[in-house]
Amino acid sequence: MILVTGATGAVGREVAGLLAAAGPLRILARRPERLTVRGDGIEVVEGAYGDRPALDRALRGVTSVFLVTNSPTEPDDERVAGAAAAAGVRHLVKLSMMAVEEPGADDFITRRQRRNEEAIRESGVPWTFVRPRTFMSNTLSWAPGIRSAGVVRALYGDAPVACVDPRDVAAVAVAVLTGAGHEGRAYAVSGPEAITAREQTAQLSRVLGRPLRFEELGPDAARTALLAKYPRPVAEAFLESAERQLAGAKAAVVPTVQEVTGHPARSYRTWAADHADAFAAE
Question: Where in this chain does the record put each NmrA-like domain (predicted)?
């Protein structure tokens, strides 16, 4: 039995879908009504990480866990790792981020993820970290502007990033969860090329068959937009991350998807074509 958390998110949803096709699966979900993966072999436990009884129910009889956490303040990794150790879980696979292995990354979110990884190491549960680069699906945030005005507004249009399709991250995670010999390893996961926001806009334009215009946001405008959605430490972390991307720190391509799954990483053009409906004109 494998337990999947974060099954309503970009990667967790794909992990659950892949695992559901292969055997019994359990999902811990704070809001089960938001799940898109369902079936006779799927058991859903409703609960949050802070609900220890629900966490214990979800972990009962489980051999492996796929863990996704996103709270900037709650000790969710510690909670799950401690409960997993008590339940005798034999493998905990955590979705982390590539920046944790990069010395130049010292923003709030990266420091938090480093602490989360350390908590899992200290739990005694055998672990694997899957550390992706920026998700291609983050550009879904451009959809309202594209649909309404044919405009993409983003910070630093010429900053390259080897962004990755969440489906490829999920495929790596599933290979780790269902294979052998992955314990104690960390896998950096990127897409097949470094691409800029301006280039992504051009590719979306070709996929959609209509002109799109890129407008670069300045740092102050980007900060204002981020603060409207996130607490200040998180917003500032995104801005620091963008500065690193502008300096080329996120451009490196790694072959992990091919090596672990046996298939090449998908390009941004492929991701855009598969999600074109999200950007369709109003």
Answer: 2-243
